[in-house]
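Morning run. Coffee first, then this:
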Amino acid sequence: MSEGNESRRRFLIAATSFVAGAGVVGAAIPFIGSWNPSARARAFGAPVRVGIRKIEPGAMITVSWQGKPVWVLRRTSENLDNLRKPTHRQALRDPDSELNQQPDYAKNGYRSIREDILVAVGICTHLGCVPNYEPEGRDEVKPALFFCPCHGSKFDLAGRVFQNVPAPTNLIIPPHQYLDNNVLVIGTDAITG
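And here it is:
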């Protein structure tokens, strides 16, 4: 074989190898990129900032986090007094929140960081309905203030479930933290970042 043919063969092998390598890299980049979550998926699980300064005592707002309704309720001093009553605690299925449905910093009688603010996922733990907030406490709802219209489960203003209702557990408390007295962040806390 002549020296010219050998040079041409090496050139063709090198050129073919380069084009093939570039093709593999070109095909791999979008494939590997598809492993990352989309912007919509990232936003779906992103923390949510909530201004709480304008929430009056006894008022509640609902925000969406991870596609779920999350309640932010400013409890009144009367609400807090009722949560402390021994007779109220005796009517609850899990008054001390022994099941792990809240972060460690919310394992207290109020199931919250601040006594006056409840942050809870507003989905009944029975079959996933959304309970109603009943601040006036209708007769069929008393002593609860969250009432699930689907099957009659009742929850107090700490999200604890009453006995003898279908819901098996308390409402879930999502991770949250306060940036200051006026701004709440749902979906992250000082521990998990």
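The chain has two domains: 1-36, 42-186. Good start to the day.
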